[in-house]
Amino acid sequence: MQSKNPVFSKKQSTGWGGQAPTPQQLQNMYDSPSYAPPTQPAYRTMTLDDVVVRGFMTLGTLVVAAAAAWYFDVPLALAIGASIVALVLGLIASFTMSTNPALILGYAAFQGVFLGAVSSVFDQQINGIVVQAVLGTAMAFGGTLAVYTLRIIRVTPKLVKYVVAAAVAALGLILVNLIAGFFIPGGLGLRDGGPLAIVFSVAMILIGCFFLLLDFDSIEQGVKEGAPEKFAWQCAFGLTLSLVWIYIEMLRLISYFTSSD
Q: Residue 17 burial by CB count (10 A; 0-12/13-18/19+): exposed, middle or buried?
């Protein structure tokens, strides 16, 4: 039986949502592409070139500051003050995983002042030692990069724990040696130029090289996983820390052998 209610008949023909779509509208809806979620992240991802550029900027700032400190013969007391500022900035950048360029470049500048003054003191005592230490650091960097590229040593969570533990233990020994030096001449003998000091410096250089391995792995994983472009600053900061560590220990190690001659 056909309904005589015009309102009911209208709702049956058009539905409760309003006017029924025309055949042309239905065809357009059918032809339109289905929704596809965005495949690209909302930010530009980090590339290896980003890390290289930021690395050159950070190391370049450090080298320029070091050269200026050497040229202007910055007093050692002022250089120690710069090292304290660099230590504070470095701790902030490390524990907060900061990607702030001003913070990281500021660390590089203050650290460069310290390295320039210290390098000048070493060079005055032993002519040419700075060039040897720079070459030694470059060789350590190249050798570690080759080891990582050839997968001779693979970075695993267990390796990371061992490297961090070794670094903490080494820094603890340095602190104990410093305190012991107030009571015993030469402290524990970790920095007096003797056989134990040579072994300790070699161990410190190896720890620095292992930190380079961790830096290389962090860069590779960041590129693979699509880390934000700004993460390249943190990678550059890590590389700079490791290279500074190795360079300082190279200065010490070479000075031991030169002094013994």
A: exposed
pLDDT in tens, 189-239: 888 888 999 999 999 999 999 999 999 999 999 999 989 999 999 999 999
Angle at 61 between CA 88 and CA 226, to 5 degrees: 80
Determine how many CB atoms are found less than 10 A away from the CB of residue 130. Answer: 22
What is the predicted pLDDT for the residue at 251? 95
Rounded to two decimals, the pTM is 0.82
Higher pLDDT, 48 or 43: 48
DSSP state of 32: S
Give the model's confidence band at 42: pLDDT under 50 very low, under 70 low, under 90 confident, else very high: low
Using 50, 70 and 90 to split pLDDT, how confident is the model at 259? low
Structure tokens at 256: 């031991």
Q: Which residues contact 203 (CB under 8 A, 6 or more apart)?
A: 170
Q: Which residues contact 83 (CB under 8 A, 6 or more apart)?
A: 110, 111, 114
- Which tokens in the block code for residue 106? 């500021």
Euclidean distance between CA atoms 169 and 207, whole angstroms? 11
Contacts of residue 214, Cβ cutoff 8 Å, sequence gap at least 6: 155, 160, 163, 238
In our burial notation (b when 16+ CB lie closer than 10 A, e otherwise), range 179-214 reads eeeeeeeebbbbbebeeebeebbebbbbbbbbbbbb
